[in-house]
Amino acid sequence: MTSGGSPLLSVRAEARQLVAPDYAVVDGLIEHTARSKVEAMRSVTDSLDRLTAGLAALGAVPFDEGAGRRPLTWSAYSSTTHEELYHDKETRRMERTGQVTATVALRVTVRDLDRLDDLSGVLAAQPGLNVHGVTWHVDWDNPAWPQVRAAAISAAIGKARDYAAALGGALHHIEHVADAGLLGGDAVAYQPLHMTARAMSASAAGPGTPTLNPVPQELIATIDARFRTTGVSLPEI
Fold first, then answer.
1. What per-residue confidence (pLDDT) applies to 231?
2. 1 falls in which pLDDT band (50, 70, 90)?
3. Which CATH topology does 23-137 take?
4. Which residue of 11, 94, 129, 170 sits 20 to 30 Å from the alpha carbon of 190, by its own alpha carbon?
5. Three-point CA angle 227, 231, 233, nearest 5°
6. CA angle 25-133-211, nearest 5°?
């Protein structure tokens, strides 16, 4: 109850909408094992050069601060080497094999989803590449966001009207609308649900080849709202 005797109703409501993803991110690792560190790194570098040449043929560019929302970008963002080990059953210790493994972590971002089949073919042609996973994403400014947020507000109004009617009153006007938690309580914000498609099983193109089939993304808008009411009274129980 506030000054003037007009009660406030506070509600939380949400809306959901499935939309096509705006882009996909493919994460993988190029890995080679050889008798020396130099040889292993040379093999990894050669594989990376072949892969990036294949990506360039599709129009891919290296990802940097100027890449923006280019249709296809790639980034080789870290490299490591380590001695190969095996578990000796007799000594029960990890022993060196005498070989060295070199790896390069790779990320490919594709926004031109019409090129997914071509990209899958380029990735499948690289025997040293292991794809760990494919994630699908929606941009923060996707045109569906205003729609789902407006739907959340409509849901809040409907919910508040139900409460007011149950008390024999009606809504007078809206006092506040905010992201969930900003009017007090827990902070549950709206977030897109990222679907992840793993690519570790065999496909028609061979083991470990990603199947790049777009996965619809669920946008979720959750809001808190407060409404001023009129004619509200406690019902007799």
1. 85
2. very low
3. Alpha-Beta Plaits (3.30.70)
4. 170
5. 100
6. 85
